[in-house]
Amino acid sequence: MSAQPMKIPGPDHPITVRPNPARVVVKFGGQVIADSRNALTLKEASYPGVQYIPRADVNMALLTRSDHHTSCPYKGEASYFNIVSGGDTAGNAIWTYEDPYAAVSEIKAHLAFYPDRVDSIEEFPG
Questions:
Q1: Is the dihedral of CA 61, 19, 100, 24 positive or negative?
Q2: What are the distances in angstroms from CA 87 to CA 25, 28, 30, 31, 41?
Q3: CA dist 54 to 19, 44, 58, 112, Å?
Q4: d(CA 53, CA 110)
Q5: pTM higher than 0.90, yes or no?
Q6: pLDDT reported for residue 3
């Protein structure tokens, strides 16, 4: 993969990472894949907020590492996981920044889920 230049978030492209006070539950194939009270909400520019869930709160036994990778000039290189549950597979449904850039270092060891590749991502008041 060719390295792209690192960019620093700023007024033209703000990124914030904040603890989410809600309980976040992710389901796929009728099964809970993640259940966390320690999720982080990353908001980037005008994009919708993304929930980053600590690996400790994810059923890693249902995940298989993908060979897919992407690169973000603001966050670094993303690695992907598939979800395999009850005979169903969601390819590249999860991404993670295993060595994120300093500006978003909080998301290290956290996983994010594509909403259209899981059954649901729900937030319940803490």
A1: positive
A2: 21, 11, 11, 12, 31
A3: 11, 19, 7, 9
A4: 5
A5: yes
A6: 62
pLDDT one-digit tens code per residue, 30-50: 899 999 999 999 999 999 999
Distance of alpha carbon 77 from alpha carbon 57, whole angstroms = 22
Q: pLDDT value at position 4?
A: 72
Between CA 92 and CA 109 the distance in angstroms is: 17
Task: Indicate whether 103 pLDDT > 90.
Answer: yes
CA pair distance 62, 73, nearest whole angstrom? 30
Q: Is the dihedral of CA 50, 51, 56, 60 positive or negative?
A: negative
Rounded CA-CA distance 96/110 in Å is: 6
Q: State the CB neighbour count (10 A cutoff) for residue 44.
A: 18
